[in-house]
Amino acid sequence: MAEISKDGLNIKLANGRLMPLVGLGTYTSERADQCYNACVAALKCGYRNIDCAWAYGNEEEVGRAVQDCIKDDTIKREDAFITNKLWNTMHQPEDVRPACERSLKTMGLEYFDLYVMHWPFSFERPADVNEVCKKDAAGNKITANIPITDTWKALEELVDLGLCKSIGVSNFNIDQIKRIQAVAKHPVANNQVEINLYLSQADLIDFCSKNNISVTGYSPLYAPGRYWKQEGDPPPLLDNETIISIGKKYGKTAAQVMIRFQVQRGVSVVPKSFTPSRIKANFEVFDFKLSDEDMKALFAFNRNHRSVGGFAVEGMEGHPEFPW
After folding, report:
1. Beta bridge partners of residue 119, listed in sequence order
2. Catalytic residue among 27, 56, 115, 222
């Protein structure tokens, strides 16, 4: 298991820096003001970890929330942990630094605490850097096959330049991480992947732990609001009676139980919410500990089922770097 700080609130990265175990996810806000308000609410109730990405289209709102909370003395910049992600159209080594610098400028920041490759597969560079991908006449994404090791080396230059404190990957499998490690000058600080009760990722977490790579889990509540639900998907977890009954023993909700489960495994999580009361509740997971019996019962939910979907992965199954 990854090393946890003495106060139980942070995970120690390979370079010695600390990353808060619970952060706010900001994917797919319906309105820009939702994202801004959610980030402000999170920072004011104790969050210090905000997870964003260029592809989410809300960098300006996240950055403004951070800046406003610094101005009103809610936080200091050095106390916040801001993660951003390099998009698939920006994997060419010569595109990495400009992409990072554009994101920093948009967010009004001097550096990112963590900057990761959003996906291992790449798209062909569009003429407009603001386009998420180029498409052919049939409407299919035009992909590229840029070596992940080349992109990684360009990420390392960002650390040398002080633009990022730590670098990592997202949605990478074990083999892909090993290929990065073979050329890495700076450590792979983090791998962000989907993790929830239906997808325990035990083998991947074990590998990362043995290699001093922290793991962040997105969709820890099984992405209840995802628009790509399919017939045959496992049922929602928030209203599962077993999880609810476990929560009652501790005076906690099903969501809090699921977040605590991952934290207790040494996995940082970035649950998404735009409701202030839920944002606050999702952070209130450090005042109880699940019993071994309850941990075992929660592990039993695993089905190796992925809920991740949507635009990024549509049509990508045939790409040589598709991770699953």
Report:
1. none
2. 56
